[in-house]
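Q: What structure does this chain adopt?
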Amino acid sequence: MDRSLTQNIWTQIGKIRQPDKLLSFLVTIWSRFWMKFAGLGYFGRLATWLATWFIPPYYERRRLAQYNSKGYIAPSATVYHSQLKLGANVFISDRVLIFEDRNSGSVQLGDRVRLHQDICIQTGNGGSLQIGENTSVQPRCQFSAYKSAIQIGSNVLIAPNCAFYPYDHAIAPDLPIAKQPLQTKGGIAIEDDVWLGFGVIVLDGVRIGKGAVIGAGAVVTQDIPEGAIALGVPARVVKLRSSLAESNLVPSPSN
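A:
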């Protein structure tokens, strides 16, 4: 072995003599080893479970997704979908459900997408879901993609308890609601760099433009333009993000 390489290894070991640093080092080695075998198969799920043994839950486990291009799929996640397509280093947390109903389209998750706890994704009747790279979805969100597509761009931030419905029931008076056919106005499209606050509901036929911000609890029933800030039920544009930059301008002493 090269002498300089040997010295470097001993130097690194010397830096972790403290018990807490040594333990952290050993845990990392353990997790990296088992994550090499992670995947959707039985052995892959078992390897993922072993990798989590000494790793705290929630955000702490997101780093495990970086140890394998197949990403991290929590042992408690339920994946029942034949058309699931995963990008590199995807993070799927505890109790996430990905369900394929009859006549379903695909579910596509881009590179480094993060799905946190208790998210429910279901597709059917030709509906599909696509989420772009680096998008983060916080706990307890619902994606019910029936009849049409839900398309979410890259670098989108989705807070907890948000819901997305690209369809509706018909409400003709001569049939019980449960027997009404599903109908759609064309699905949901959310462009890049959008931020959805806590509890936002996005309904059928809506496009949210790039860089828009939707306030907590809003119900989005119509298109929101690029860079807008929208609040309320139904959501209404209250200002543009560009106006915030203008209002923060400080006059120079020469003015």
